[in-house]
């Protein structure tokens, strides 16, 4: 077996050494994509947080620049935590971020920084104006749970931002601050929105178009009847990012989710390891792009030994599904430039009950796989246990990849060792509609089951799962997986449900990693098309 220390990533953004977490202030400026991120310059565990900075022309090749923001003033002396960028009307970016201003507690205030030289497309140096901090926790705000300012939007003579907070013991809150001059900020008394979910970290609030097209709009497009709004919060307690789709009332400064139960029965960007994410509008390609952090799921001891921890997921384009009920996500098209020249595949291949088919002819430890399945019949689908109908993850924990079903589980085994002792399963499973659900539509579950991912038993290997809002009666469903040594990032049904897992095989490494299609359901399924590409390493891939 190979040591965990040799497992890295080939094309996912990661630091060559040390710890990274949240993506911060992604933006596009003068032909360059900028990514800042939370970074510990002194080690592979969280701490000593500064803003590292990398730039790219294509979202794939990255060059690390010098640290952009680090403790230097009273109001950020003990840490420069997460924040966002806003492109001002003159075209220059402004950053707002959280500063830790006391040594004894995480006393959180909001600061600003501006480029020292806006004619530098690389925005290498940032200066902090003397009037920092610009927002302090006043009026009963819990100063230790008050952080992560959003990108500002502009309407009716005012800029607005959100700051995430905790009210009382358990209420997640997004406070609105307004400013006429982007300098003096005052709080709107009532928050934009709140819910009994625990602390809201890294809120994100942005418009999406309702025309069913995949294009994005700038954050300040607030008043058109052609947009709805998305509010995303990162749940500190549960460590995942959830969102609702709804309406922004800019006169009352309130946001109302379309689904009244949305904050309770919420959607997630990703049902796996994906946190503290942030979007930005890319004017070059008129799209909205989502960045999210995926932490390691090995041990802290392993992280220290390997010298680094944390990656960023492949940036995803996000748009509103024509149904208006949820977002769609898809890896930015630029990642396809890494696909090798000789894809391999399967076509019209029936996979019978209990069968698995190996996809050969490629080195699949670092690969991009797209597959479409056809389901000849849904007759034999299992009945959904009403007790588990609300908990996809639990259901998948009970009905993992090896538990035979009616229709499914079927999908991919990725990062599989030659004798299959190790394998990560990414799959679907179809259920007849539960009797307590007012619909005849069958229910589709998507899972990532890493319980067999590694012979190394010293690892955290949760099964991840989410529902897929698709009409499977048409008999078709697709899956795409970006496999990258220790990452399996999967997109179900064209990006309706996404799951990122971190896995640490001990055998299925490099040339010893295999790829299979499997079917552990009673019903036959058909792979109408499978295409798998080896993925090249970007020429430049340098975190801090
Ligand atoms: N990470 C930052 C905070 C944020 C948290 C600190 C989310 O600003 O709330 O590194 O991961």
UniProtKB/TrEMBL annotation:
<protein>
    <submittedName>
        <fullName>Uncharacterized protein</fullName>
    </submittedName>
</protein>
């Amino acid at each position: 077996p190979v040591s965990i220390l040799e497992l890295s990533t080939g094309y996912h953004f990661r630091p060559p050494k040390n710890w990274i977490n949240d993506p911060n202030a992604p933006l596009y400026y003068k032909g360059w994509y900028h990514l800042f991120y939370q970074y510990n310059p002194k080690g592979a565990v969280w701490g000593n947080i500064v803003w590292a900075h990398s730039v790219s022309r294509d979202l794939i090749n990255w060059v690390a620049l010098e640290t952009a923001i680090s403790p230097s003033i009273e109001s950020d002396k003990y840490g420069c935590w997460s924040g966002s960028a806003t492109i001002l009307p003159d075209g220059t970016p402004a950053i707002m971020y959280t500063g830790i201003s006391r040594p004894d507690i995480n006393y959180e205030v909001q600061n600003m920084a501006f480029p020292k030289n806006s004619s530098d497309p690389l925005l290498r140096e940032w200066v902090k104006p003397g009037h920092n901090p610009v927002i302090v926790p006043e009026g009963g705000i819990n100063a230790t749970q008050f952080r992560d300012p959003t990108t500002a939007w502009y309407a009716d003579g005012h800029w607005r931002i959100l700051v995430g907070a905790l009210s009382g013991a358990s209420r997640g809150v997004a406070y609105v601050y307004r400013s006429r001059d982007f300098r003096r900020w005052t709080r709107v008394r009532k928050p934009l929105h709140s819910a009994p979910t625990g602390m809201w970290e890294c809120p994100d609030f942005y418009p999406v178009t309702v025309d069913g097209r995949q294009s994005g709009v700038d954050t300040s497009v607030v008043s058109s009847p052609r947009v709805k709004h998305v509010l995303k919060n990162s749940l500190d307690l549960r460590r995942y990012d959830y969102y609702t789709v709804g309406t922004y009332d800019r006169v009352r400064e309130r946001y109302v989710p379309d689904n009244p139960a949305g904050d309770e029965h919420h959607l997630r960007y990703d049902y796996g390891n994906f946190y503290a994410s942030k979007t930005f509008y890319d004017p070059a390609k008129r799209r909205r792009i989502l960045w999210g952090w995926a932490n390691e799921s090995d041990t802290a001891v392993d992280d220290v030994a390997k010298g680094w921890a944390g990656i960023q997921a492949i940036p995803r384009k996000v748009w509103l599904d024509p149904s208006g009920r949820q977002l769609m996500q898809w890896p930015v098209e630029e990642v396809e430039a890494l696909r090798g020249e000789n894809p391999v595949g399967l076509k019209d291949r029936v996979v019978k009950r209990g069968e698995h088919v190996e996809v050969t002819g490629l080195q699949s430890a670092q690969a991009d796989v797209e597959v479409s399945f056809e389901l000849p019949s849904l007759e034999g689908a299992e009945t959904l246990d009403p007790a588990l109908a609300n908990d996809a993850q639990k259901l998948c924990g009970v009905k993992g990849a090896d538990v035979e079903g009616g229709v499914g589980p079927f999908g991919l085994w990725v990062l599989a060792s030659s004798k299959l002792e190790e394998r990560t399963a990414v799959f679907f499973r179809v259920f007849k509609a539960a009797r307590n659900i007012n619909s005849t539509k069958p229910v589709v579950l998507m899972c990532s089951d890493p319980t067999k991912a590694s012979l190394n038993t010293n690892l955290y290997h949760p099964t991840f799962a989410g529902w897929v809002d698709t009409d499977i009666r048409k008999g078709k469903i697709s899956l795409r997986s970006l496999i990258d040594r220790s990452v399996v990032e999967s997109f179900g049904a064209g990006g309706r449900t996404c799951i990122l897992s971190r896995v640490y095989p001990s055998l299925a490494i490099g040339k010893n990693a295999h790829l299979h299609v499997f079917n552990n359901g009673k019903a036959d399924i058909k792979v109408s098309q499978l295409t798998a590409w080896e993925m090249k390493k970007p020429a430049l891939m340098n975190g801090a």
